Amino acid sequence: TADLAWRLQYFLQLQTLWSLTVFQYLAFFQNIDTTGTDNLYNSLFQNRTVTNPLIPDFAISSVTSGAPPAINAQDKGLLIGVLGLVPADLDTLIAKTPDGLLSLANISYFYRIAQLSQTLSVSIGDLLIFLDIIDISPFTDPVTTNAFYSKWRAVVASQFAAADLNYLLRH
Fold first, then answer.
1. Is 143 exposed, middle or buried (0-12, 13-18, 19+ CB in 10 A)?
2. Sign of CA dihedral 142, 148, 149, 150
3. Which of 63, 11, 68 is nearest to 41 (CA)?
4. What is the pLDDT of residues 83-126, one digit of tens each?
5. Cα–Cα dist 161/158, whole Å
6. Nearest in space to 63 (alpha carbons), one of 22, 111, 125, 24
7. Burial 91-107 (b: 16+ CB within 10 A, else e)
8. Cα separation, 170 vs 76, whole angstroms
9. Which of 17, 129, 149, 170 could join 162 via S-S bond, C-beta 3.0 to 4.6 A?
């Protein structure tokens, strides 16, 4: 249908612009894929090249259970390493989750924010400010991601730092 073609156009446009794989970009809109053995989740968190032995808290059965574990120091270490975060940024993101648990939903949230931060070459702190200022979720669907990106380009063109822009708009 025309609607599907239109959405696919936006999907492919930003996926290409941001140099993301299909599964990396799909994780903007849903939980990280865990189906099959060769999935994005396993390549990130069940990869013996990254962590050997594997951390049991990151087993798919654990993060998708009704009672996922609390995030401990070992879990933080893997999240920081895999997602390219600094400890303070991960703590900020954990505080923004509803429960602070090591669930697939929370891991996917951390992944989305880290990917968008890296894609836009902006710090996590600045990204969170811009997300609040722009007030369009880039994680809804490709059309709204494109709308966010258009606003993002306008904000960046203003050449204001995130903190300065936040101060100007809030005071």
1. middle
2. positive
3. 63
4. 999 999 999 999 999 999 999 999 999 999 999 999 999 999 99
5. 9
6. 111
7. eebbeebeeebbbbbbb
8. 33
9. 129
